[in-house]
Amino acid sequence: MKVKVDQEKCIGCGVCINTCPDVFELNDDSKAQVKDDADFDSCDLDEAIDNCPTEAISED
């Protein structure tokens, strides 16, 4: 599974991190990014995608 965060859309609200802390983290620009060692089995990615207020998260 591939997930990406559109850095232009992300506002760094942290909803995705609260939903999937083993997948997402904030980068140096205080925007969400997918962790290098992301554990996709540990959370509901659909919930993170659906709850993103700017629709910045998508599956490839």
Would you give an account of this structure?
- With 60 residues, the protein is an alpha+beta fold.
- It has a single domain, classed as 2-Layer Sandwich (Alpha-Beta Plaits).
- Helices cover 20% and strands 20% of the residues.
- The chain contains 2 helices and 4 strands.
- The longest helix is centred in the C-terminal third of the chain and has 7 residues, at 45-51.
- It starts with a strand and ends with a strand.
- Residues 1-29 form the 4Fe-4S ferredoxin-type domain.
Number of strands: 4
Q: Provide the spatial order of strands within the biggest beta sheet.
A: 1-4
What gyration radius follows from the Cα positions, in whole Å?
10 Å
The largest sheet, given as strand count, sense and whether it forms a barrel, is: 2 strands, antiparallel
- Residue runs with pLDDT of under 50 for 5 or more positions: none
Structural class, please? alpha+beta
CATH top level label: Alpha Beta
Pick out its properties.
20% strand; globular; single chain; Alpha-Beta Plaits; 60 residues
